[in-house]
Amino acid sequence: MTLQRANEAKRKQALDVGTHEHALDVALRELPDLPLAGVGHRVVHGGEEFHESTQLDARTIAAIEACSDLAPLHNPANLAGIHATLQRLPKLGQVAVFDTSFHHSMPAHAYLYAVPYALYAQRKIRRYGFHGTSHRYVAGRAAELLGKPLSALHLLTAHLGNGVSATAIAGGRSVDTTMGFTPLEGLVMGTRSGDVDPSLHQYLATHAGMTLEDVTDMLTEQSGLLGLSGESNDMRNLLELASQGHARAALAIDVFCYRLAKGLMALCAGLPALDALVFTGGIGENAARVRELTVERLALLGAVLDAEHNTAHGRASQGTISSQQSRIRVLVIPTNEELEIARETVRLLGPAA
User: Fold this and answer.
1) Secondary structure, 3-state, the chain
2) Shared domain check, 122 and 13
3) Catalytic: 99?
4) Is residue 343 part of a domain?
5) Which domain holds residue 50?
6) Is the pLDDT confidence value at 33 over 70?
7) What is the pTM of this model?
8) pLDDT over 90 for what percent of the chain?
9) Domain for residue 139, yes or no?
10) In Å, how far are 47, 78, 114, 252 from 180, measured between CA atoms?
11) Catalytic residue among 16, 69, 99, 254
12) What band does 352 get if pLDDT is binned at 50, 70 and 90?
């Protein structure tokens, strides 16, 4: 567990029992004087039910449980945290903030798949998008740094971590994103493949004897940077290996950056103009080489980096890493999903929170 008070260094400690209940007990014991006024929960999938953050009650919890089939690796864990908190802090207002809700502003031509419409009408199979809390936060920070109202800006935001997604944002609203029905769709990630030919499942079942579960596990846990490099899903390790001449590490980085640039260019179809490109997430904030290799492939957008500012991660330039010759601003903005969740919690529970 990592604990951090405002303006203090992080403190880490090992937990004796790996459950949400035990972790919450330790946190409350370690912070006995914390004046709690509300609790905000990150929930990955809200399906079509939740278009915005929502205060938790019995109906809301049941609806989140009903979405678990859409995110079986995430929503049950989110619900475990919710139940543990409700048991220990039953008098506090509690709010669910959904990764998917920010993307509900996407138009139908962006979220529908070209499959029989009945699959959407009856089973809600569509593109949902994820990382919405991060994309919303950095879009707001970009408006502050650019000195313009968010409602007047057109942005591309790239959340690069072990999970990777990019979003086109017009006037503060998501108009398209790279992740889809699940977080497996889209760009190359740490262990996830991103987009592949849908016929791959049938081919591997027929010719390699793999089950549907085998293929899905491979695409989710054994692919991406890890699968391409054969070494690691950690970009830091791959950059070090590539600098030492490791060919497959260098190849994994190149595929990652090319697919990212390609995805960003495709998202421009949803925007009438482009003011700025924002990098965020662990890789986006810290890997100058990744930003360099990606922006090199965005010449059609007129994006040009300032090498010195890029190497310094934009710290000396209020986040800007583009040169004066660049037609668009390129920014590095550290994400803060926890702060965004806190803001949403206060918004719904009122100023007393």
Assistant:
1) CEECCCCCCCEECCCCCCCHHHHHHHHHHHCCCCCCCCEEEEECCCCCCCCCCEECCHHHHHHHHHCHHHCCCCHHHHHHHHHHHHHHCCCCCEEEEECCHHHHHCCHHHHCCCCCHHHHHHHCCCCCCCCHHHHHHHHHHHHHHHCCCHHHCEEEEEEECCCEEEEEEECCEEEEECCCCCCCCCCCCCCCCCCCCCCHHHHHHHHCCCCHHHHHHHHHHCCHHHHHHCCCCCHHHHHHHHHCCCHHHHHHHHHHHHHHHHHHHHHHHHCCCCCEEEEEHHHHHHCHHHHHHHHCCCHHHCCCECHHHHHCCCHHHCCECECCCCCCEEEECCCCHHHHHHHHHHHHHCCCC
2) yes
3) yes
4) no
5) 2-128
6) yes
7) 0.94
8) 85
9) no
10) 11, 20, 13, 23
11) 99
12) low
How wide is the angle at C-alpha 234 spanned by C-alphas 260 and 290, nearest 5°?
35
pLDDT value of residue 353 = 62
Which pLDDT score, from 0 to 100, does residue 326 have? 98
Distance CA 158, CA 331 (A): 10
Same domain, 199 and 232: yes
**Do 171 and 39 share a structural domain?**
no
Query: Tell me, what's the pLDDT at 2?
Result: 86
Spell 31-50 as b/e; 16+ CB within 10 A means b. eeeeeeebbbbbbbbbbebb
Contact 154, 328 (CB under 8 A): no
Residues facing residue 2 across a β-bridge: 12
CATH code of the domain covering residue 264: 3.30.420.40
pLDDT level of residue 31 (50, 70, 90 thresholds): confident
Strand order in the sheet with 173-177: 173-177, 164-170, 154-160, 276-280, 329-332
